[in-house]
Specification:
By secondary structure, the protein is an alpha/beta fold. The protein contains 22 helices and 28 strands. It has three domains: 322 residues, Glycoside hydrolase, family 3, N-terminal domain (TIM Barrel, Alpha-Beta Barrel); 237 residues, Glycoside hydrolase family 3 C-terminal domain (Rossmann fold, 3-Layer(aba) Sandwich); 141 residues, Immunoglobulin-like (Sandwich), CATH 2.60.40.
């Protein structure tokens, strides 16, 4: 928000009638021709590419992008998405098309915390860690919005504010109850980073209540925290038709007029839905003031001005043409993002990469082997071309290697053909395996199984998972194929944690490809045959079942995520292998003792002891040695992606701010606490399970923080450097 554009907005709004003002608070905003205001539809999506309006570059789903741990990559992708969005908007506008999904206000990113692996929408997020989510969310926002304070390239929206991660089936009536500690330690952190560090233009509320208040009309969330505490200056939009839930499901109001007034009075400016159609009646009844309505519309007009929608305030981006949409450069970036997102979970005796000279016949088996749905996740655009794992291997190997294919089983049903017997494709899969030198099993999920309530078409739990096992007959198919005796590579396509305990024990290699984008199969094929080394790390914990997880509806963070549990973990947060190995040494700090208000510089040497070029993800964790019971254990507080050529060593410097050492107390206050802190640096978490899986232990050092307990700010912008 700039002073110039805010003054312009105030001038515009001062000339509007009350009816005209209210008309601009609906997501379908009509034109006000006498004021030169064109019609505009605010609803657009850009979670991992411009969505739902035809052709666009389809990048890996957000959870896959998170596996790269790379802020520069995410910002670059955000910039590409806004470039394509601008190109489409400019051309649509010339032809008078102002419909849904054609605008410049993108309702992304989703910075909710993936606190429970059963949540269906978790693949829209950047994982379970607040620090990583905040870093990546800010990067994507910077890419979408650009760096001109007076002109937005597009407008980003951090959602869903603020305590929102399932269950989907009851989201319209559910009350998420969270302690002040968990609010500020986990659920609010990324949102504050998005507001303070990235200047996100919009924030979307959630469907559920939070501690008794509906999120889209919560005085605590929207006024006390978002505006007063965080200093948010942009606009707030409701989730779609969420305001109707106030009276229909939450029962905190009696009528739609009361619901609309409650939302506006507590800071909601824009309604995705129909409740604000009744706002004039609420105004006439004295339920909402002209001042509250005016303030909302001023904020909405201000963003439209900065987006260049007024003729006398043109945009520097209005010359971007449609030819940028899915151009060669953007497609290449999407494939590179898919490469960077792959996580190598297992590689028994360095089985991968395969030598194509030794593979004459390869079998590609499974319901996701040739599935476009397993590439795209949700909230996706349309690609002009898709490359599944089967197609990727066919194209990579050409005519010299025979590629056999069998679907094997349905994704979750007991048969593929409706009139067939159960397991109707099992025998075909076994025949293909018998005739092959190696088998690639393509299993997992897609957005018909995990996704949003009302959007996912699965027959389970409105988009949520009931458990963590592979659905349907997939596990049985895997065991049957493995019993043939040929080497097996499991390629997992999913947006969440799956219990792969059997596969970990019995197959030769496991690659998690997430939902890898329209051409993700190309990246998978190249990885299998060693064109590059996978480098991604898990942004979520993979558990062995749900037995040790709290109830899905329990929003306490106790026993959740790597920060608060080490129980029943199969693959830890931050884990992922390379072809070859990287090693760390020489961990040091600039000062072993420092005041609680001082930053600390951390140095570590990273060496690539392999013949492959690798993108090593340096992970820095902090643990308060004398932590109170409610505090987390190790916490990620520094990341840097270091490109290392074969046998190259680089010295990395990361700066830890006072906020990085801070403790969130039970009352939600953020304080710097004197005491002993352990710093860990490596390519993984400093936990026992990671050590067992990799055979490596992270470098560790203890430092002393001196002085008095002091309140500290959330805001910090420190950048790592490579010497």
């Amino acid at each position: 928000m700039s002073k110039k554009t805010m003054e312009y907005a105030k001038k515009l709004v001062s000339q509007m009638t009350i009816d005209e003002k209210i008309s601009q608070m609906l997501y379908e905003s009509p034109a006000i021709e006498r004021l030169g205001i064109p019609e505009y539809n605010w609803w657009n999506e850009a979670l991992h590419g411009v969505a739902r309006a035809g052709v666009a570059t389809v990048f890996p789903q957000a959870i896959g992008l998170a596996a790269a741990f790379d802020t520069d990559l995410i910002e670059k992708i955000g910039d590409v998405v806004s470039t394509e969005g601008r190109g489409k908007f400019n051309e649509f506008s010339k032809k008078g098309d102002h419909g849904i999904y054609k605008g410049l206000t993108f309702w992304a990113p989703n910075v909710n915390i993936f606190r429970d692996p059963r949540w269906g929408r978790g693949h829209e997020t950047y994982g379970e860690d607040p620090y990583l989510t905040g870093k990546l969310g800010c990067a994507y926002i910077r890419g979408l919005q650009g760096d001109d304070p007076d002109h937005l390239k597009s407008a980003a929206c951090a959602k869903h504010f603020a305590v929102h991660s399932g269950p989907e089936a009851i989201r319209h009536e559910f009350d998420a109850k969270a302690s002040k500690h968990d609010m500020y330690d986990t659920y609010l952190y990324a949102f504050k980073r998005c507001v303070k560090d990235a200047k996100v233009e919009a924030v979307m509320g959630a469907y559920n209540r939070v501690n008794g208040e509906p999120a889209c009309g919560s005085r605590t969330l929207l006024k006390d925290i978002l505006r007063d505490e965080f200093g948010f200056e942009g606009h707030v939009v409701s989730d779609c038709w969420a305001i109707l839930d106030f009276h229909e499901h939450h029962h905190v109001t009696d009528t739609v007029e009361e619901s609309a007034a409650m939302a506006v009075n507590n800071g909601c400016d824009l309604n995705c839905g129909s409740a604000f159609l009744h706002l004039k009646d609420a105004y006439d009844r004295g339920l909402v003031s002209d001042e509250a309505i005016t303030a909302a519309v001023e904020r909405l007009m201000e963003v439209r001005i900065r987006l260049g929608m007024m003729k006398d305030y043109p945009s520097p981006y209005e010359d971007i043409s449609y030819e940028v949409v899915e151009c060669k450069e953007h497609v290449e970036l999407s494939v590179e993002a898919a490469r960077r997102s792959l996580v190598l979970l297992k590689n028994k005796d360095n089985f991968l990469p395969l030598d194509r000279k030794n593979v004459k016949t390869i079998a590609v088996i499974g319901p996701n082997a040739n599935s476009r749905d397993a590439l795209i996740g949700n909230y996706y655009g349309t690609s002009s071309r898709y490359i599944t794992p089967l197609e990727g291997l066919q194209q990579y190997l050409g005519e010299d290697t025979r590629v056999l294919y069998a679907e094997g089983c349905h994704l979750y049903k007991d048969k593929v053909q409706g009139l067939a017997e159960e397991k109707d494709r099992f025998k075909e899969a076994l025949i293909m395996a018998e005739q092959s030198d190696v088998v690639v099993m393509c299993l997992g999920l897609d957005a018909t199984i995990e996704g949003e309530e009302g959007d996912a078409g699965n027959e389970y739990a409105s988009g949520d998972k009931l458990g963590l096992m592979l659905p349907g007959l997939q596990e049985e198919l895997l065991e049957a194929v493995a019993a043939v005796g040929k080497p097996v590579i499991l390629v997992l396509s999913a947006g969440s944690a799956i219990d792969l305990s059997w596969a970990e024990e019995h197959v030769d290699a496991i690659i998690d490809s997430w939902y890898s984008g329209a051409r993700g199969g190309k990246a998978v094929a190249e990885a299998i045959f060693g064109e590059y080394s996978p480098s991604g790390k898990l942004p979520v914990t993979f558990y062995q079942g749900t037995e040790n997880l709290p109830e899905f509806t329990d929003y306490s963070m106790a026993h959740r995520t790597y920060r608060y549990t080490n129980e029943n973990v199969l693959y830890p947060f931050g884990y992922g292998l390379h072809y070859g190995e990287t090693n760390y040494d020489g961990l040091s700090v600039d000062k072993a003792e420092s005041d609680v208000n001082e930053p600390v510089e951390v140095f570590v040497n990273v060496t690539n002891d392999s013949r492959y070029t690798v993108n090593e993800i340096v992970q820095l964790y902090i643990r308060h040695v004398d932590a109170a019971e409610y505090e987390p254990g190790y916490q990620l507080k520094g990341i840097e992606v270091v490109k290392l050529e074969p046998y190259e060593t680089k010295k990395v410097k990361l700066t830890l701010s006072p906020r990085d050492f801070a403790v969130i107390e039970e009352d939600g206050s953020c304080v710097a606490v004197p005491g002993i802190y352990e710093i860990s640096a490596g390519g993984q978490q400093p936990d026992d399970r990671s050590t067992k899986l990799t055979g490596k232990r992270t470098e560790r050092i203890e430092i002393t923080r001196c002085g008095e307990k002091t309140a500290v700010s959330y805001t910090h912008l420190t950048l790592p450097t490579i010497a």
